[in-house]
Amino acid sequence: MNSNKSYFRARRSLIALAVLAGGWSSMAAAQVKTIPVGGKEKAPPAQEEATQLDEIEVTGSRIKRTDFETAQPVLSIGREDIERTGLTSIGDLLQNLAEAGSALNTAVNNGGNGSVEVDLRNLGSNRVLVLVNGRRWVNGLRSNSTASVDLNTIPVSIIERVEVLKDGASAVYGSDAVAGVVNIITRKNFAGAEARAQYGQYTQGDGQSNLMSFSLGSVSGATSIFTDVSYVLQEEVFAGDRRISREPLFGTGNVFGSSRTPQGRFVFIPDQTVSDGLACRADGFCNLSLKVGEDGKEVADFEGFNNSKRYNFAPINYLLTPNERSSIFTALNHDFGNVLFGNPLAFQGEFLYNVRKSVQQLAETPVDVGDFASAPFNTLYVAEDNPFNPFQQDIGRTDPNSPDGVGGGVIFRRMTDLGPRIFSQNVDTYRLGGGFKGSFDLFERFVSWDAGYTFAESRNTDLQRNLVNVDRLRLAVGPIANCNNTPGCVPLNLFGGQGTTGTGSMTSEMLRYVGYDGQGSQKQRQNNFYAYFSHELVSLPAGMVGMAYGLEYRKEYFQDIPDPLVQAGASSTNRGLPTSGGYNVKEAYVEFNVPVLSGIKGVDALDISAALRYSDYNSFGSDTNYKFGVRYKPYADLLVRGTVSTAFRAPGVSDLFLGLSDSYPQITDPCAGATGDVAARCQADGVSDPANYQQLNTQELERLGGNPNLTPEEADTFTAGIVYSPEFVPDLNIYLDWYSIDLTNAITTLGSQNILDLCYTAGAGDLYCDLVDRNSNTGGITEIRNTFLNIGGLKVEGLDIAADYVLPWLRDYGTFTVKVDSSYLTRFSKFIANASGGLDELQYEGSNQGDTEGQGFPRLKANTSVDWAFGPWSANYRLRYVHHQLEENCEGLEDFGLCDVVKTDADGNVIDADNNLGSATYHDVQVGYNLSRWNMQLTGGINNLFDKDPPVSITAFANSFDSSLYDVPGVFPYLRLTKSF
Fold it and tell me: What is the spatial distance between Cα 348 and Cα 91, in angstroms, rounded to a whole number?
């Protein structure tokens, strides 16, 4: 439908670039002919020889060129490739790339916010620069990672192609381009209309997915306009509806369930009159739970607590969170002709408005009351005169006059009466950009220029339902006089559990008083001014020297205003203080491409490239980065390339200004049952009897916060590779690229488990122990401070191997194209500071770190596909492979069959146990038929054809599998209808 010939030429050239310069994606377009390195394509007809190819920008360089081979590896994903996946989010597609690491997605329920991000090389989504049409996209709204882009703000229906630069590019683009660059190119020169509808759901009958879009475009003379309206609805999947996720830890029943149960858990030191009627422990502690079917009005209604009484919180959680997105996008281009002193002038502008509504659902609010609890619940206690207290003594307030500590303790209660916790987001994102471009001759050399401005903003209204007001809870369970003297106060019954009928003992009046719905908001804003120039500098025997240079001014601002009760620490959800701040940066860059030799024996072509960028931030100062590249073709079939560069990531708003916020990660306290040197360190830190000390709760309070004294991360990056297109095997292309990234001065948090292990297990000293606070009475953890620091670094190395081949012997039956794209991780090392001031190296390659690092590091990820096209028919078969990984510290789970590698001593005692996450291969298939008579295409597909389940993880935060690496379990068929007008 496109009548613009120059557009077609540019598009073909860009596809050639993907083949020549970057390792073709396993999803590359089947109908596009692969151009070999030597460019041995049939010459165009004579009448087209006089038509000059448009000069374009290649991702990773701002030099306009018609030579599409560069020194950098670039992967291209075309519109057809996206459609073959059946996915409705470009973020989901990018997370399936072989080069992608673990990143946030809509399968993250606890800790997710409806965003989908992309990670390259396992370096984190905040070290990937995301561009749209070569311009920075507005960052997302996660308060603890404000430098990561939410790809769900970019509708999949507007995308023409995606180019992924697998190399650092700070010298060209500035901050954040450490692991690579994702450049999303939108549709523009489109004439006609297109309507599309897609529906799919899991064979279990859930997780329905709907996509509807309508595109309208016009190319008329000097003006082209493209508009797209789209709607996407992804519905939820409950964890209870999949076998792997319906228990807290797969295969262990309720052993790892929560001690915060609907029947309550009551841990306290009784006075003598109470203990006489109870089966309390020999050490004087009562550890009780309400018997099922009792109302909790009598002491005899309670019995000893054990693991069988734990609460299975898993089924009510979302396994796949619902996500609804609506958007409108318009792109306008107009050529004014030669109106600028006889030189061409054109306008380009675009507008996007996207609305995302997303929801996460967690098990009902857990409530702790007592001085053995973490803040803020450690300031609450149940008074002896609470009308529902059958023990008739204070619980959770230690009597200072009692040598035995009578009254000290905690009550754990799951507020099932209130209903599940529901967190919803309503995110509005809009982006407006416009500018002018043109060209002129300077001293008989061609110069092109591009200048403009973009403004973008995302706003979110964050609603939280079925939380508990801690201040009101204090009154409702405390001394009855305080409640009676407070208007509206209703005493709360924490002892009645689910009552005699199982429907809950808390009345609607009680729930209305202590329960509440909260609201917070976030805002991210970006202003960007730019002016770029690209021109021919001087002619050399081997070709023309290209040069680009430019200026940019960018201003970023982020604001997070939590709910007032959350700020005050008076909410049952994690406490968080407001975050507000921003920065601006002025930048200048210059880039050269120099052809050194060409057309001589042993040197078909030899080019060198160089770039330099200066960045001046008002937050920390200046930074300068460089890049050098070499492109060498000894003969027409072989391309050898390499780069060396520096990259950096400036501290983001959250890194600098994040208000202290609470989190409750699942950790193991090394002091529980400790002996030897570990016990001595624990005693020195306030744990009086480590051998008998028990960790009451595995989710401990962690305080996260920013650090205004941070400096930028710095990285040295290297790539080297070959592209081989042998003349004796037509249509075969092989790509091999090695990469190395050495990141220093990393902005990171240590993580609570690492802090505890370094303090107590490794004995690394006060540097880490000072970050841990403990209860002076019980020795239990009350707080772990985990703030951002410039500490340590990362070292990553690996190989990307790819190939594509058009099978020659099946041409009578259509065009068959085989593609392979794989990435092999040879090293992933994390360096963290130790007590002596040096660095300790932790090696992660081939491992899965679960809740500790929140990601897996498989040695190999690979995608393979076979594409077929024959007349109106098309088909695609794809395999996605994730290599096996090892989880350590499986001790204690041997009896459940979850430990694959178990080592014992001579007496049969387990000394080491690990869990092997087996390799996983997903099979996806799609078939399409073009009904040309009606200008329609019917497409059907099935993802995860053979119902592959993810491997069981013992350390995953939830659902017993790593949702950043593996699909939600289930077969997913879908059907799509496309109609052109």
Answer: 26
Q: Which two tokens stand for residue 436?
A: 């002018």
E strand or H helix at 527: strand 515-540
Task: Please tell me the predicted confidence (pLDDT) of residue 623.
Answer: 94
Structure tokens at 286: 């009562």
Express each pLDDT in 182-196 by its tens digit: 999 999 889 999 999
Q: Which of 843, 564, 604, 873 is nearest to 727 (CA)?
A: 604
Report the pLDDT value the prediction gives residue 837, as an integer from 0 to 100: 62
Q: Using an 8 Å Cβ cutoff, are 186 and 350 in contact?
A: yes
Q: Is the pLDDT of residue 910 over 90?
A: no
Residue whose tokens read 């203080």 = 577
Distance between CA atoms of 767 and 765, rounded to whole angstroms? 6
With bands split at pLDDT 50, 70 and 90, how would you rate the model's confidence at 3? very low
In whole numbers, what is the pLDDT of the chain averaged over residues? 89
For 61-122, the three-class secondary structure string (H helix, E strand, C coil) is CCCCECCCCCCCCEEEEEHHHHHHHCCCCHHHHHHCCCCECCCCCCCCCCCCCCCCCCCECC
Does residue 33 carry a pLDDT above 50? no
| pLDDT for 532 | 96
Placement of tokens 């973020």 in the chain: 91
For the whole model, what pTM was predicted?
0.88
Instruction: Determine the 3-state secondary structure of 684 from DSSP.
Output: helix
Specify the pLDDT at position 336.
95
Q: What is the DSSP letter of 757?
A: I
Can you say whether the dihedral through the CA atoms of 494, 495, 498, 500 is positive or negative? Answer: negative
Farthest-apart Cα atoms in the chain, separation: 106
Residue 10's nearest CA partner among 69, 63, 66 is 66
Report residue 431's pLDDT band, with 50, 70 and 90 as the boundaries.
very high
| pLDDT value, residue 852 | 65
State the DSSP string of 10-48: HHHHHHHHHHHHH---TT--TTSPPPPTT--PPPPPGGG
Question: What is the reported pLDDT for 20?
Answer: 31
d(CA 231, CA 746): 39
Q: For the residues 213-235, what does the mean pLDDT come to?
A: 95
The string of DSSP letters for 356-399 reads: EEEEEEESPPEEEESTTSPTTGGG--B-TT-TT-TT-S-BSS--
Q: SS3 for 400?
A: coil
In b/e form, how buried is each residue of 120-129, taking b as 16+ CB within 10 angstroms? bbbbbbbbbb
Q: Name every residue whose Cβ is closer than 8 Å to that of residue 251 and which is 6 or more positions away in sequence.
A: 896, 897, 898, 952
- Amino acid identity of 730? P
Q: How high is the pLDDT of residue 699?
A: 78
Q: State the DSSP H helix or E strand holding residue 320, giving kind and residue range, or none if neither.
A: strand 318-320
The reported pLDDT for the residue numbered 37 is: 39
Lowest mean pLDDT among 39-53, 125-139, 598-612, 682-696: 39-53
- DSSP characters for 593-638? EEEEEEEETTEEEEEEEEEEEEEEETTTEEEEEEEEEEEEEEETTE
Task: Work out the pLDDT band at 835, boundaries 50, 70, 90.
Answer: low
Consecutive H or E run containing 497: none
> 207, 648 in Cβ contact below 8 A?
no
Token digits of residue 15: 């596809």
Question: How many whole angstroms separate alpha carbon 126 and alpha carbon 139?
Answer: 9
Above 80 in pLDDT, residue 52?
Answer: no
Q: Cα-flanking dihedrals φ and ψ of residue 52, to 5°?
A: -80, 135
Tell me the sheet residues that pair with 603: 600
Nearest alpha carbon to residue 39 among 723, 932, 594:
723
Residue 772, SS3? strand
Spatial separation of the C-alpha atoms in residues 210 and 236, rounded to whole Å: 12
What pLDDT score was predicted for residue 401?
86
